[in-house]
Amino acid sequence: MEGSSLRHWKVIPILLITLQFTTNMVLSLADAPFDKQRNIEYIKSSCSSTTYPRLCYRSLSIYANKIKTSPRLLVDTALNVTLKASKSTSRLMVKISTIHGLRPRVAAAMADCIEVIGDSVDELQQSIEELGHISRSNFALTMSDIQTWVSAALTDEDTCMDGFAGKSMNGNVKTMVRKRIVKIAHLTSNALALVNNYASTQSNLP
Ligand SMILES: *[C@@H]1O[C@H](CO)[C@@H](O)[C@H](O)[C@H]1NC(C)=O
């Protein structure tokens, strides 16, 4: 009789441990989709303040699990995505510019574009580097630098398109260049909106 009640008492801690283990497992299984949903919602709501929210969401949601709900990682990723697209556009334009038989005015516009998009790649690179060194003590100054760099990149993209203004420039080259430049200009504009958002929120201090 006494022996059997002792056995009962020994079983209780095992039951408790098992219960706790099961509870933890259920909670962590429930956490994963919850986190994922929260990360996606964070990107969606951040993108809603940009000029091209659908492009913003499309280009950033694939990094949701890396960004989580960090405004700094959001800006970093937006700049990275923009830089990558700008570099690939730059490479394409260099390729197009070597096509023989381009009309002289088109060839000149291409040469100008290659130069200003090169500048814009440098400016985006500079922004990413500065963001890497951001701290509580240099936050305002660094963010203001980044705003300047990203705005300059946007101006360079506009300058490239201005070179192709006018019907006389119409043709395959203009169509191809415009499509790419518009895309990177929209990505840059979105990145700038996210940068401005980050800069203006005091609670974002690293
Ligand atoms: C941005 O790109 C750099 C270089 O490719 C990489 O090391 C870094 O992790 C990227 N940052 C984010 C937030 O994805």
From TrEMBL:
It comes from the Eukaryota. Residues 38-194 form the Pectinesterase inhibitor domain. One of its GO terms (molecular function) is pectinesterase inhibitor activity. The keyword tRNA-binding does not apply. The keyword Signal applies. Keywords: Signal. Pfam families: PMEI. Transmembrane segments: none annotated. Residues 1-28 form the signal peptide. NCBIfam families: PME_inhib. Belongs to the PMEI family. This is Pectinesterase inhibitor domain-containing protein.
